[in-house]
UniProtKB/TrEMBL annotation:
Residues 1-33 are annotated as: Disordered. This is Dimethylargininase. The gene is ddaH. Keywords: Hydrolase. It comes from the Bacteria. Residues 12-27 have a biased composition (Low complexity). GO terms for molecular function: dimethylargininase activity. It is an enzyme of class 3 (hydrolase). Its EC number is 3.5.3.18. The keyword Nucleotide-binding does not apply. Gene3D superfamilies: L-arginine/glycine Amidinotransferase, Chain A.
Length: 296
């Protein structure tokens, strides 16, 4: 049903290791899934304003380096056999590279983002427009503030939803109603981890890795109950945005600096794919932020 603008589609070149029956011990953590991602080349990337504690406009950012790091991330996905589509970057929207914030797409239904900060407000309609243009007809403009997959992370039977800094808790029930999936609210308490995807990522359809210190005591308890076998990350890994990672159930694409987390994931049987996203981190983003998953 989805038709994409010619030239925007990128076809995976290499054979897919993710689709193979690779004997990595990660098999016990779940099967590898071939995914469809939407990304936005950082052609207008800059740190021009500060809307999170990572951003310092006076420090400057090297756009060419950001583009090289982003290209590397894109080829990692393609090399793993994932499909990558592109949305055109819009001049004047320096954070548009963080595609994860643009929407939440589950079962072919697109729940649009509504950004908290006016600096990013125009990104919501830009991403929604991409989905409409590409044939998605179950599209919902949000009535409440929410920053897409920055604060909504989807597992097989539940969607985990962050609140506290960006996404309004009322958006959680709006998303649940629209998507027909149970949404579990998690409260974020540390401003460095202002989106859920800075503090937690799904390892597969039924387990997660997370940094407990980013969550309120009640939400920590919820996470312990839901995921008794979760991978627990420490603050050293969290402060290099190590939890802003993307897993296909076998491979985990993770910030290279997250040394402890990388070791733990390998020990758990995952195939770790380190990437350097240091330039994009100056705006508060990592690999997951650059990646919006299109499900269905
Ligand atoms: C990992 N995170 C938090 C993301 N999903 N998005 C990055 C957004 C960065 C942007 N400057 C902002 O502060 O909104």
């Amino acid at each position: 049903m989805t038709t994409e603008t010619p030239g925007q589609e990128i076809h995976p070149g290499a054979a897919s290791p993710a689709a193979s029956t690779a004997p990595w011990p990660g098999a016990e953590s779940g099967q590898s899934t071939t995914k469809h991602f939407l990304m936005c080349r950082p052609e207008h990337f800059a740190v021009e304003y500060a809307i999170n504690p990572w951003m310092d406009p006076s420090a400057g950012a090297d756009r060419d380096l950001a583009i090289r790091q982003w290209e590397e991330l894109r080829s990692v996905y393609e090399g793993l056999g994932h499909r990558v589509s592109l949305i055109d970057p819009v001049e004047g929207l320096p954070d548009m590279v963080f595609a994860a914030n643009g929407a939440l797409v589950v079962g072919g239904r697109v729940y649009g983002a509504r950004f908290k900060h006016p600096e990013r407000a125009a990104e919501g309609p830009a991403y929604l427009e991409w989905f409409v243009r590409n044939g998605y007809d179950r599209v919902r403009e949000a009535s409440f503030t929410n920053e897409g997959e920055g604060d909504f992370l989807t597992l097989d039977h539940v969607i985990l939803a962050g609140t506290g800094f960006r996404t309004d808790i009322t958006a959680h029930s709006e998303a649940q109603e629209f998507l027909g999936r149970p949404v579990v609210t998690l409260r974020l308490v540390d401003p460095r981890f202002y989106h859920l995807d800075t503090a937690l990522f799904p390892l597969n359809g039924h387990n997660v890795a997370y940094f407990p210190g980013a969550f309120s005591p009640g939400s920590q308890e919820v996470l312990r109950r839901l995921f008794p076998h979760a991978v627990i990350a420490d603050e050293d890994d969290a402060v290099v945005l190590g939890l802003n990672a993307v897993s296909d159930g076998t491979h985990v694409v993770v910030n290279a600096e997250a040394a402890g987390l990388r070791r733990t994931l390998e020990h758990e049987g995952f195939k770790v794919v380190p990437v350097d996203m240091s330039e994009l981190r100056k705006a508060g983003g990592g690999p997951k932020c650059c990646t919006l998953e299109i499900r269905g």
